[in-house]
């Protein structure tokens, strides 16, 4: 992974800022300082239950506001965190912050809302992952069932045997497991059947196809929903931007949806404000 994305990792500096070489090199130093400088924060994108129309949880998404360059996308800096090994500390911070914020939703009267946290390949392969997850839920006093970890197909398929053991250990802790970006990586039906997973998140590229009337993408979404339901998994559609997409998903029997149509990712205070309006879709 590191090799193939090597050129892309610096792209936001070179294309957006026409930077010189020494600026490229300063990125790593910037990232090292970012955590202690409070430059990271989390935003939360609501997940909506399509039966009730209400918010049942939210996905935590990391944001980096660089003091000079402004907001930088996680698509650009998460690979850099992985390359430098900083993902260990930053990932742990994300886990704790997400659990703490989820507890705050409960304290504000929104009981039982769950939080999803993205886990990168290196985090998943960290031998201390289980301990870190356990510490986060214990120290933040979050019921384990309300924490969900999102992993891509490729992460678990790289070493299916080893992944199964880690997933089982997480499961026995009570933590839920979601397969993120489903349909875009290498999955195997045989493994999806045996992995202890709870949720499939259908990748947003398929929702884009639904919107422009691509019948293959619509068929993939419909089949994925059926597939998940038949396997007893919960299914989430990502990237819902229009009413038509939402109606389509309801007709398909999809359980949950996430996307700009309902809400963009929001900082904690704005999420709480939205919850207080008791929105329904
Ligand atoms: P992801 O986990 O698949 O997250 C979904 C991405 O789609 C988010 O981008 C979200 O803002 C965006 N999105 C949500 N709804 C819509 C929509 O309706 N339309 C469109 N066009 N986009 C939508 P974001 O926040 O830029 O995150 C990108 C990726 O970065 C995430 O993909 C995830 O893989 C990674 N990431 C984000 N936060 C973290 C983190 O805390 N840790 C790790 N390891 N990775 C993270
Ligand atoms: Mg995700
Ligand atoms: Mg995704
Ligand atoms: Mg993604």
Descriptors for this entry?
alpha/beta; 13 helices; 10 strands; binds ligand C2E; binds magnesium ion
How would you describe this protein?
The longest helix has 21 residues, at 87-107. The chain has 281 residues and is α/β, with parallel strands linked by helices. The chain has an eight-stranded mixed beta barrel with strand order 1-2-4-5-6-7-8-9, surrounded by six helices. 49% of the residues lie in helices and 20% in strands. The protein has helices at residues 11-17, 21-36, 74-84, 87-107, 121-125, 129-139, 153-157, 160-173, 189-194, 204-211, 215-230, 243-252, 268-276; strands spanning 40-49, 55-66, 70-72, 114-118, 147-152, 176-182, 199-202, 234-237, 256-257, 266-267. The chain is built from 13 helices and ten strands. Helix 4 (87-107) runs parallel beside helix 6 and helix 10 (204-211) packs across helix 11 (215-230).
Largest sheet: 8 strands, mixed, barrel
- Portion of residues in helices? 40-55%
Roughly what fraction of the amino acids lie in strands?
15-25%
Hetero compounds: ligand C2E, magnesium ion
Can you count the helices?
Answer: 13
Q: From N to C, what is the helix and strand string?
A: HHEEEHHEHHEHHEHEHHEHEEH
Rg over CA atoms: 19 Å
Brief characterization of the structure:
The protein has 281 residues and is of the alpha/beta class. The chain has helices spanning 11-17, 21-36, 74-84, 87-107, 121-125, 129-139, 153-157, 160-173, 189-194, 204-211, 215-230, 243-252, 268-276, and strands at 40-49, 55-66, 70-72, 114-118, 147-152, 176-182, 199-202, 234-237, 256-257, 266-267.
């Amino acid at each position: 992974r590191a090799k193939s994305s090597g050129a892309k990792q610096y792209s936001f500096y070179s294309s957006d800022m026409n930077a010189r070489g020494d600026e490229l090199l300063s990125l790593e130093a910037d990232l090292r300082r970012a955590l202690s400088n409070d430059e990271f924060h989390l935003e939360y994108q609501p997940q909506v239950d399509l039966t009730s129309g209400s918010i049942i949880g939210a996905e935590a998404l990391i944001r980096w506001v660089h003091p000079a360059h402004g907001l930088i996308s996680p698509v650009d800096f998460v690979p850099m965190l992985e390359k430098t090994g900083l993902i260990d500390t930053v990932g742990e911070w994300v886990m704790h912050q997400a659990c703490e914020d989820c507890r705050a939703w409960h304290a504000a009267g929104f009981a039982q809302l769950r939080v999803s946290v993205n886990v990168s390949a290196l985090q998943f392969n960290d031998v201390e992952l289980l301990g870190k997850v356990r510490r986060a839920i214990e120290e933040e006093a979050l019921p384990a069932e309300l924490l969900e970890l999102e992993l891509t197909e490729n992460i678990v398929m790289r070493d299916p045997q080893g992944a199964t053991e880690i997933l089982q250990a997480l499961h026995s802790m009570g933590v839920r497991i979601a397969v993120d970006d489903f349909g875009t990586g290498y999955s195997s039906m045989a493994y999806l059947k045996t992995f202890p997973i709870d949720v499939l998140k259908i990748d947003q590229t398929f929702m884009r196809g639904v919107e422009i009337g691509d019948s293959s993408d619509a068929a993939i979404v419909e089949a994925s929903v059926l597939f998940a339901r038949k396997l007893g998994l919960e299914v989430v559609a990502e990237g819902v931007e229009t009413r038509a997409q939402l109606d389509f998903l309801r007709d398909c029997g999809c359980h949950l949806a996430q996307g700009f149509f309902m809400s963009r990712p929001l900082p904690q205070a704005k999420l709480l404000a939205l919850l207080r309006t008791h929105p329904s879709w």
